[in-house]
Design a protein that fits this description.
Largest sheet of chain A: 6 strands, mixed
Strand content of chain B: under 5%
Strand content of chain A: 35-45%
Number of strands of chain A: 21
Shape of chain A: globular
Largest sheet of chain B: none
Helix content of chain B: over 70%
Oligomer: heterodimer
Radius of gyration of chain B: 26 Å
Distance between the termini of chain B: 52 Å
Structural class of chain B: mainly alpha
């Protein structure tokens, strides 16, 4: 388990302020944040390379706040492999290995046994990264810290490396904390997502939850939500259980009207105060030629401004009374509906697809 | 047609004038560099050609020159070893850690480089001479500093160690601190990570730093002559022969010193030729 309790630290120009989160034993935590948000500082503070100025760090239930890095039973892999240039591949992997067998096993798992005698200068970037991961895991750490280890890899090596790390993680149940700026990667790998901005945790939770319900327009924008609207919310009336199913009084949801520009969305939420933005993922928006009689509460007529195709998916931008709405639909739908710029269509989404923040 | 030719000329003109300007610049650079090299090398070449052969042959007969050479090499080596032991940790601290007063320590380390060397000798004599509390205490403990090889070592150390600190600090700074961080997470304590990773990665730079220090120690005169005139190192001997017997007697000694100084110079060249090109 990785547990940070109100940790603050400073290194160079980066600071961490009051950072708290938990990654359960054997869990896979993902730290997401823009460049300069303090992600590497966070990993190095957990590793013991940077001494925190306040707060507590617990690894596997043990307080390691002032323990040196070598006493923390963890491995770190940076974006640049930092293989020791004066040692060959074999010696790098064996450097901190628990035993010879572990070093040989990790060489095999990461597919680098054939290059064991090579100098590290002779390796490609992807090969170096695989060796760095084998080196960190040959020690059999309880905690693995990964600082964007896949970002410099070509797509094929990236997929391979991810697969190996995931398989090892499931097999050995060590705890992982990985830094990434790629939310797709976080959703793919993580149990817990921690969103960092300017040294502070701005949101944490299950990746799917963070993805679907970003805590702020900033996070929504960073996570790549296409439809982020600024506006005002008004409660229509309180509706209990019948809307959400079940008789639990705690799941009271309010029907809310959210006005942005000339449009008003119907949404559900538990509070109106302070709501200034509505977020709708492009995947939640459908396009039809005519308004449909269905459960879809929000339907807006508009003109297609642009269609951008990326493989099987197309992003269609519709101008609905001056408000741009982006829908992600299949290329097949684009063909079948014969969509083209300038065409009048109806964009629709359910009230439950609107996330207010 | 004429217009077409005109535009063609315009586009050709600048490219035609550029080689001419380049040629002038090349000539100016070549002349300036040659004159500078001549000024720097002329006296040395003159000295070696006038006294080199006599110097080498006098090595067999001139007992005083031979012992001065041995004394110079020995004291410079001891000073360098002391510098390595004493100044390497400081150089590492200056390269790696940020601490209060780091800038002040850095500035103080450069001080011996900017003060005239006889002044450094006077300062050393003040602290280590027999009349001073420290020098007096050392003398009664049986260690004579002034007018002894110990004094030569002290003078050499004082004036040449700052060069070592500065070069060693640079050598450490060139090794990314994250190599050490990785080694620490792989189970090394600070000393082991230094020994297994930082030291091998900075060894070439540290060796070059030691060679520079040794060369500077060998060529020192000003501080040594104040602290220890006798026994004589080669630089003091050449000065002594010049003042006592004139130029002709000083020439062989001076030429031998120049040839002697070529050893570290060659070592440095060899070290640098093996260095990979910096990206």
């Amino acid at each position: 388990m990785i547990s940070l309790q109100r940790v603050s630290a400073r290194a160079g120009g980066f600071t961490l302020s009051d950072v708290s989160f938990d990654v359960p034993d054997g869990g896979y935590g993902v730290v997401i944040g823009p460049a300069g948000s303090g992600k590497t500082t966070l990993l190095e503070t957990i590793a013991g390379v940077i001494r925190p100025t306040s707060g507590r760090i617990l690894l596997g239930g043990r307080d390691v706040t002032i323990a040196p890095p070598e006493a923390r039973r963890l491995g770190i892999v940076y974006q640049h492999a930092y293989l020791f240039p004066h040692l060959d591949v074999r010696a790098n992997i064996a450097y901190g290995a628990a035993d010879d067998e572990s070093a040989a096993d990790m060489s095999d798992r990461f597919g680098v046994t054939a290059m064991a005698d090579r100098a590290v200068e002779a390796l490609s970037g992807g090969e170096r990264q695989l060796v760095a991961m084998a080196r960190a895991l040959a020690r059999r750490p309880g905690v693995l810290l990964l600082d964007e280890p896949f970002s410099a890899l070509d797509p094929r090596t990236r997929a391979t490396a991810r697969r190996i790390v995931r398989a090892l993680h499931q097999e050995r149940r060590f705890t992982v904390l990985q830094v990434t700026h790629d939310f797709a990667e976080a959703g793919l790998l993580g149990d817990v997502a921690i969103m960092l901005d300017r040294g502070r945790v701005v949101q944490q939770g299950e990746p799917a939850e963070v993805f679907r319900k970003p805590a702020s327009p900033y996070i929504a924008d960073f996570l790549g939500a296409e439809n982020v609207f600024a506006g005002t919310a008004h409660e229509i009336r309180a509706e209990t259980s019948d809307l959400v199913g079940g008789a639990d009084r705690d799941v009271t949801q309010h029907a809310i009207a959210f006005t942005t520009g000339a449009l008003t969305f119907y949404a559900l939420g538990d509070a109106v105060d302070g709501t200034t933005h509505a977020v709708i993922r492009a995947e939640e928006i459908s396009i039809s030629a005519e308004p449909s009689t269905s459960s879809v509460q929000n339907q807006f007529r508009g003109h297609i401004v642009e269609i951008v195709s990326a493989g099987a998916l197309s992003r269609v931008t519709i101008d609905a009374s001056g408000t741009p709405i982006v829908a992600a639909i299949t290329a097949r739908s684009v063909r079948e509906l014969r969509l083209a710029p300038g065409m009048e269509v109806v964009a629709g989404f359910k009230a439950t697809a609107v996330h207010l923040c | 047609m004429a217009q077409f030719d005109g535009s063609k000329l315009e586009s050709v003109e600048p490219t035609r004038s550029r080689p001419a300007a380049n040629a002038v610049a090349t000539i100016l650079v070549a002349v300036a560099s040659s004159l500078f090299l001549l000024f720097m090398l002329g006296p040395i070449v003159g000295l070696v050609s006038a006294g080199g052969a006599r110097g080498i042959s006098s090595l067999a007969t001139d007992h005083e020159l031979r012992s001065a050479l041995l004394l110079t090499a020995g004291t410079a080596t001891v000073a360098t070893l002391l510098g390595i032991v004493g100044a390497t940790p400081l150089a590492y601290l200056l390269a790696r850690r940020s601490f209060r007063g780091r800038a002040v320590v850095s500035a103080l380390m450069d001080l011996p480089l900017v003060i005239p060397h006889p002044v450094a000798g006077i300062a050393l004599l003040l602290v280590l001479g027999r009349g001073s509390p420290v020098g007096g205490a050392l003398y009664s403990a049986g260690l004579r500093v002034a007018s002894s090889p110990t004094g030569i070592v002290c003078a050499m150390l004082f004036v040449s160690a700052p060069l070592y600190v500065s070069a060693a600090r640079e050598a450490f700074a060139r090794v990314d601190a994250r190599y050490e961080s990785v080694a620490r997470t792989l189970g090394d304590d600070a000393w082991r990570a230094f020994r297994r990773v930082t030291l091998p990665l900075s060894s070439r730079g540290l060796t070059a730093a030691a060679v520079v220090m040794w060369a500077r120690a060998v060529s020192e005169f000003g501080a040594i002559v104040i602290l220890t005139y006798n026994p004589k190192v080669v630089s003091v001997l050449s000065y002594d022969r010049f003042t006592s017997y004139g130029l002709s007697e000083a020439l062989p000694v001076a030429a031998v010193l120049v040839l002697f100084a070529l050893i570290p110079l060659a070592a440095l060249r060899a070290l640098r030729s093996g260095e990979p090109l910096r990206r």
